[in-house]
Amino acid sequence: MAQRALMVAPSDPAQKPVADTPSKFEVSGLRASFGDNVVLRSIDIAVPMQRITAVIGPSGCGKSTFIRCLNRMHELVPSARVSGTVLLDGEDIYGRRVDPVLLRRRVGMVFQKPNPFPTMSIRDNVLAGLRLTGGLDKSRADELVEGALQQAALWDEVKDRLNAPGAGLSGGQQQRLCIARALAVEPDVILLDEPCSALDPISTARIEDLLTVLRERYTIVMVTHNMQQAARASDLTAFFLSGELVEIGPTTKIFTRPGDSRTEDYITGRFG
Amino acid sequence: MAASLSDGRSSGSTRPRAETLFRALCLAAVIIPLLLLAVLVGDVLIRGLGRLDWAFITSLPSRRADLAGILPALVGSLYLVTLTSLIAVPIGVGCAIYLEEYGHDSRIARIIELNIANLAGVPSVIYGLLGLEIFVRVLNMDRSLLAGACTLSLLVLPIVILSSREALRTVPKGLREGAYALGATHWQSIRRVVLPMALPGILTGTILAISRAIGETAPLIVVGALAYVTFLPESPMSPFTALPIQIFNWVSRPQEAFLINAAAGIVVLLVTLLTLNSLAVGIRNRFQRRLR
Description:
- The complex is a heterodimer.
- Chain A is of the alpha/beta class.
- In chain A, about 35% of the residues lie in helices and about 25% in strands.
- Chain A is globular, with a radius of gyration of 18 Å.
- The N and C termini of chain A lie far apart (about 40 Å).
- By secondary structure, chain B is mainly α.
- Helix content of chain B is about 75%, strand content about 0%.
- Chain B has helices at about 10-15, 15-50, 55-60, 70-105, 105-120, 125-140, 145-170, 175-180, 185-215, 220-225, 245-250, 255-290.
- The mean pLDDT of chain B is about 80.
């Protein structure tokens, strides 16, 4: 695992073609609400495999709720409701027999605020997913820790203090630790909910570089407030407004020739 | 015109008089109870310290004040605290986990919650009567340590539950979500993430509750703790006495010598309480340090 991570080519900011990539997620008629408050209405979207899809839009447009529907985190809020279908590799994740716990092991998530577990060391944080779920093979633990930290570009900074508390790292390091923690479970998809909004520009740049490397292996969906970030770091951009998908397309196209005047208004800073 | 931050007078006098007054009142609120406490403790120490020696701690009670000791009461109290912790902590923490993590908005959880808040305010004598009826009579525990510990457990449970819930509630939502996002089940997230975080808070509440149990007298009298015990408890089913009971008994004697015994007993009770508390605080701090 470590080997593979080291052999990946250095980050290549050039966007990848998206036209004929197979879909990882196919979402149709997705509707989500909290009590009487409908947050998403009838979303149809296809998320391509091994690409970075950025989700942009003004606050309250439903972009966070959208990615939380992709790993069934939305329903953890007591009043939350979801309907519609979300196919992951062709299988409906809202199907009757799907266990959301197993789904979340395939669809990892990184949150806005870095949330390493404060009671655990750096090493234990990386292993947390496996240990929590009882799937840790102790003889492979060291290898797993190194592999995940390498992939998250954190290994060199923490290799000498793996037993130090995870909460003692800087914000940017904590966020990469959270990425490493998500990677250690070996998911197919990583969802990121404004992963850089609490970080400084240098940490942000490191995470963006990291994502371009990670897309070689993972499908990435990233919510962002920052339009420059979407333009820099994504292959595909989806623009949400008031709980609806306005348009989705290759990032270069969305930012240079948007198909909808509302998208143009938003990216040129006329509102939001 | 540039506004000046200073009006020429010294900074102290520019403060509104009300603030100075408020500060003085708050300070008084700190000092008055501390003074009272100091007077009480001082009085007890002056009267009791002279009487306090190793023989007093290791002797059985006696009709003669100068031979009487406090050993059965001390052992009884330690037994009670241990048994009460063993009973009240697992039940209390379990109840708090249910209410906070599983019950949430359910109607039954809200009813339980309301009742617990009310129970925390019930006078301890009432718990004694309840213990007498349920544990001593119906469950046939007789006037045993176990019956006393069960009664004290009832008394402290509301405090354990309320403070454990408070501790569970302070665990950030982001950490629970982090666990779920890794594919943890509800139980796994509670066990590995939420409980370790909440543990120092839970311990703090438990310490407070158990301290309360050490000093309780009324429910134990009702349940039937004996006042004159010339043997040490051998099992949870033994009859027993406890420090506050022994003190209460001595205070009610007319002879001056027994009053001095009572003062010495109070010193023993205070030292026991402080020792147990600092032990518990030490344990809590160890867990807390792990969090930093």
